[in-house]
Amino acid sequence: MPSIPFSPPRFSALPQFSLARRLPSTPTRFASTGSSVRFDWADALQFGSIDDEEPLDLSGFFQRVSVCNRGSEKKDEFMPFLIDNQIAGYTHKAFTKHLSKHNDVFHIVKDKNGEGKIGEHLRFNPSLKSYEARTEAVAHVIKCLGNLIPGIRNELYPVTLAFGVPPFFSLERAAAPYFGIKAYGVHMNGYVEIDSEKFLWVAKRSEDKPTFPGMLDHIVAGGLPHGISCKKNIIKECEEEAGIPASISTKYIDPDCEGYLQLLQSLRSSDCT
């Protein structure tokens, strides 16, 4: 996640922020160059090699991971969504019943003999082979479903097997959880330096937000739509969510802000995964 080393700009449109979680000012962990302070991968790797004398308590983090992974006992309530013989998502069987009414777009394939490895699953109608045809057909189905999928955003997410892989089709953002697809986003943290000490710059969500109103958050975060890079998206979100204009965000966001994703791709292709 990119960090922005500058003092908070004074904009009337800027949401409420707070300075919290003072960061250590140890020179070996935060390298200074003149008046500019940076936190890069070298610093991140140093944090990953904590000495025994400096135990890192990650119990709270792992508790959150456990919460995110809850509900495994309900996996039988879902069926795989296969595209080109690959699992692209999972749909709840109750939701799948609504999709089955649109058999010009979706088919439910049943494993009558119980011998298949996947079993009952959802597929596209075989006539829908191209990205464009699938995107258009699914958009029509979602429109027909009406209030069954609330909060339509008119923003498309790519439906793909992994980040950077060509998508099978694009899907309305609000419908992504209903199809159980992989979705991606951008998150930006920042810090400020006050009297030679460093503080995380913590944002507070608007009370008018439909999700998690009034709670603490990253400075900027947002879903990654189809057809836009991580860097361009974070610059766009800076202006939309925090009133930070492109004249500032383009200056301070590191051009290598996608390095984290490149690292993940390298790990995925190596023997480490």
- Count of strand segments: 14
CATH topology of the domain at 75-179: Transcription Regulator spoIIAA
CATH class of the domain at 75-179: Alpha Beta
Structural class: alpha+beta
Mean pLDDT: 76
Low-pLDDT ranges: 1-39
What's the architecture of the domain at 75-179 in CATH terms? 2-Layer Sandwich
Q: What is the string of SSEs from the N terminus onward?
A: EEEHHEEHEEHEEHEEEEEHHH
- Helix proportion range: 25-40%
Largest sheet: 4 strands, antiparallel
How much of the sequence is in beta strands? 15-25%
**Alpha-carbon distance between the termini?**
22 Å
* Shape verdict: globular
Rg (CA only): 22 Å
Helical element count? Answer: 8
Domain DUF4743: 61-183
Protein name: Nudix hydrolase 20
InterPro entries: DUF4743 (IPR031804), NUDIX_hydrolase-like_dom_sf (IPR015797)
GO molecular function: 8-oxo-dGDP phosphatase activity
Kindly describe this structure.
It is a single chain. By secondary structure, the protein is an alpha+beta fold. It has a domain at 75-179: Transcription Regulator spoIIAA (2-Layer Sandwich). The protein is 27% helix and 23% strand. The protein contains 8 helices and 14 strands. The protein has helices spanning 41-48, 59-68, 93-100, 131-145, 176-179, 230-242, 246-252, 259-268; strands at 17-23, 32-33, 36-37, 78-83, 86-92, 106-109, 121-124, 156-159, 169-172, 185-188, 191-194, 197-204, 216-217, 220-223. The strands form 5 sheets. Strands 1, 11, 12 and 13 form a 4-stranded antiparallel β-sheet that branches. A hairpin with a 2-residue loop joins strand 2 and strand 3 (36-37). The protein is globular, with a radius of gyration of 22 Å. The protein starts with 16 loop residues before the first strand and ends in a 5-residue tail after the last helix.
